[in-house]
Design goal:
Structural class: alpha+beta
CATH class of one domain: Alpha Beta
Number of strands: 35
CATH topology of one domain: Dna Topoisomerase Vi A Subunit, Chain: A, domain 2
Radius of gyration: 26 Å
Number of helices: 16
Strand content: 25-35%
Shape: globular
Oligomer: single chain
CATH architecture of one domain: 3-Layer(aba) Sandwich
Mean pLDDT: 90
Helix content: 25-40%
Length: about 700
């Protein structure tokens, strides 16, 4: 490669593997690799990935002019409770916001209910006298005389981070900002997050949870980001590092260190972007994105090439499929369901003789038994090895030897013998259970959104996604699957198509018919200035795209509908148009509007960012069965449950138009696509593998 050639780098650090991708100026992937994640020092695995990728294309680090990074570190810290010692500071009389929550049990009749861990014990929940009205007027001045005692209490409880969430601070942040200034002057090492910056929205419980979560991971993420930048700078990478966010955009390191809660689920967001781009490329309207890695599986609904989004999600649910059992976080996020179902998910037999798979994972250390790194519990990967779906000589670019005998022995001892099954039946049971778990999650996610998955095309990627796509599709009732190029590092590839963007939401209650145009236009201008300052950190000169919206509802209702706003300053003539848009959206969701009822607005949203590149459409290609020479391998047939021959072929040998019938294994460096016995596969004009369930199968 020419020394002057510019490269773009994407690195996605997952729970088991770290994915690295290099693309050239034309957007073509020139190198990709998977390395084992190094949990204690994540940068080490990432640096190893960079070294390997550069060696493949014979390039130097200083040729990289763009670097996008996503990580599960913030997510894992919240799930595994490895953050800072955090305290809260609320308005006097509201000490127990976290304890009270929504004033309901997520499982009403469960006498052994496990409440979500909200990170702060009551002895670290402090209050201070002050009071704002819902319209932002000061009803009770801030009691600054109480600050010295508060400082002493924070020192006594050894707080490393503090979440300040005062009543109605979303409308007037004066007291929160003043408290931060006073406390920072005396406690300079204390990481302080204030709700008026982190989540300036009404609903105190959600706002406090979000601010607390941000404070909890902020010290660790600040250290991590500084170390990560230093390590890559020393390795010769000179360009700025941009961080992937949960909303599918990118931001500079400075913004990431300030709002680390927005980095939660940043890796899976990249996968949803890749799936949306593939959907746009193929002209698909209804898509189910399926990303299965070593630790978790992520499923996302995509309509008209746009991932479904949300303003809220839950972290670390005590009951995996039950809403309300986790910590609610209010940030812009690509809406997906994530479950503990990956290649490293551990299988076991309980004392009642029932098999279970996940959510516990062997991760990268020690990993599945087949990795030979000390793992002793059988996993999904061990089952796939035993079934013949993973070829030992081709796995993970040959980074380490796969011990098939050890995998079979672990399944025999811990699963087959307790159940009285053969090794093959036990391995098939592990595989079917994890596939059914993922299918159940997909169905539930779709039902919650009022949608149907059986009419959708599945776009599968991730280290294990193409391997399980046919089996999941069969369980979920999906008939068509698309496997894009470089699926094993799909989320990292998705990073490269993400815009540099920032989204902000603020609460300012208004009645639509009596809108204060001057106040709302001033609010939107202030939001624009905030977003523009953050976006310009990562895109100093790029052309930016703006969108604005309002969250509306009928007076007295509890939930809002997002309605697009014009880009110009709001004026009286906009009232009729906004009323019409709201009534149309309301009727689409609830069959009909409510005539004559007042409409109110709770939140205002603004998103500013660069425009993502538009993919070229794929031209249709005729079908041909003239395949290059293939080999045969022995597998346990996923449909018949018996050993039979399967076609094995390198994906690089397949050209557009080629067609084959399952069962087959299509191998490539970072993953394998398993074509089930009831599916066929063809290659389209963009190099996507398209799998269709055969009629009558």
């Amino acid at each position: 490669m020419s020394a002057s050639s510019a490269l773009r780098l994407a690195i996605d650090i997952g729970g088991t593997f770290t994915d690295t991708v290099l693309v050239d100026a034309s957007g073509a992937v020139v190198a990709s690799t998977k390395t084992l994640t190094t949990p204690d020092e994540p940068a080490l695995g990432a640096l190893e990935g960079l070294k390997r990728a550069l060696a493949v294309c014979e390039a130097a680090p200083d040729q990289i002019d763009s670097f996008i990074h996503g990580t599960t570190l913030a997510t894992n810290a919240l799930i595994e409770k490895r953050g800072a010692q955090v305290a809260t500071l609320t308005t006097q009389g509201f000490r127990d916001i976290l304890e009270i929550g929504y004033e309901r049990r997520y499982s009403q009749y469960d006498i052994d209910i496990q409440k979500p861990d909200l990170l702060v014990q009551r002895d670290r929940a402090f209050t201070i006298a002050e009071r704002m009205s819902a319209s932002g007027e000061i009803l009770l001045p801030l009691d600054e005389s109480a600050v010295p005692g508060l400082i002493a209490a924070l020192r006594a409880c050894r707080a490393e981070a503090l979440a300040i969430c005062l009543l109605h601070a979303y409308d007037n942040s004066e007291h929160e900002v003043r408290l931060r200034d006073l406390l920072s002057a005396e406690l300079p090492d204390l990481a302080i997050s204030i709700s008026s910056e982190i989540s300036p929205e009404a609903r105190e419980f959600d706002r406090l949870c979000t601010t607390t979560a941000n404070a909890y991971v902020q010290p660790m993420m600040a250290r991590y980001l500084a170390t990560f930048q230093q390590e890559f700078s020393q390795a010769g990478v000179r360009c700025p590092i941009l961080m992937m966010t949960a909303s599918g955009g990118m931001c500079a390191l400075e913004a990431a260190a300030r709002f680390p809660i927005r980095l939660v689920e940043s890796g899976p967001a990249g996968g949803a972007i890749l799936a949306a781009r593939t959907a746009a490329q193929l002209g698909l309207e209804d898509v189910l994105s399926f990303d299965m890695g070593g630790t978790t599986a992520k499923l996302c609904l995509i309509d008209n090439a746009r991932p479904q989004t949300s303003r809220q999600f839950e972290i670390a649910r005590a009951a995996r499929f039950i809403k309300g059992s986790g910590m609610p976080v209010r940030i812009p996020v690509i809406d997906m369901i994530e479950i503990g179902a990956g290649g490293g998910s551990i299988a076991n037999v309980d004392r009642l003789g029932r098999m279970a798979v996940g959510p516990e994972s062997a991760g990268s250390e020690p990993g599945p038994v087949a990795f030979g790194k000390g793992g002793g519990a059988p996993t999904v990967t061990d089952a796939d090895v035993s079934l013949g779906y993973i070829r030992a000589d081709l796995f993970a670019e040959g980074q380490f030897a796969i011990d098939s005998d050890a995998a079979r022995a672990a399944i025999a001892q811990q699963i087959a013998e307790p159940l009285g099954d053969s090794i093959e039946d036990a391995a098939r049971g592990i595989s079917r259970m994890v596939d059914e778990n993922m299918a159940s999650a997909a169905r539930m996610h779709a039902v919650e959104s009022g949608k149907n998955i059986t009419t959708r095309t599945m776009i599968a990627f991730g280290g294990n996604g193409p391997l399980h796509a046919c089996r999941l599709a069969r369980a979920a009732g999906v008939d068509r699957i698309v496997i894009p190029p470089n699926p094993g590092v799909g989320s990292a590839v998705g990073f490269l198509y993400a815009p540099v963007s920032f989204e902000t939401v603020r609460s300012q209650y208004s009645m639509l018919r009596s809108l204060d145009f001057d106040a709302i236009n001033a609010l939107l201008e202030d939001m624009d200035n905030e977003a523009r300052a953050i976006v310009r950190q990562g895109a100093p000169e790029a052309e930016l795209k703006l969108s604005r919206s309002a969250f509306m509802r009928y007076h007295g209702q509890g939930h809002e509908i997002e309605i697009e706003l014009p880009l110009e300053p709001l004026a009286p003539h906009d009232i009729a148009a906004l009323t019409h848009r709201f009534e149309q959206s309301y009727a689409a969701q609830f069959s009909r509007p409510v005539p004559g009822m007042d409409i109110e607005i709770l939140n205002w949203a603004l998103k500013l960012g660069t425009a993502p590149p538009v993919p070229e459409s794929v031209t249709s290609i005729g079908s041909s069965s003239n395949l290059p020479p293939t080999s045969r391998c022995r597998i346990l047939c996923d449909v018949e449950g018996r050993i039979r021959d399967a076609t094995q072929i390198d994906r690089k040998a397949l050209e557009p138009g080629m067609h084959l019938i399952g069962p087959a294994l299509i191998t490539e460096p970072q993953t394998t696509t398993f074509v089930g016995a009831d599916f066929d596969a063809s290659v389209d004009g963009a190099g996507n593998l398209v799998l269709n369930r055969m009629t009558g199968a």
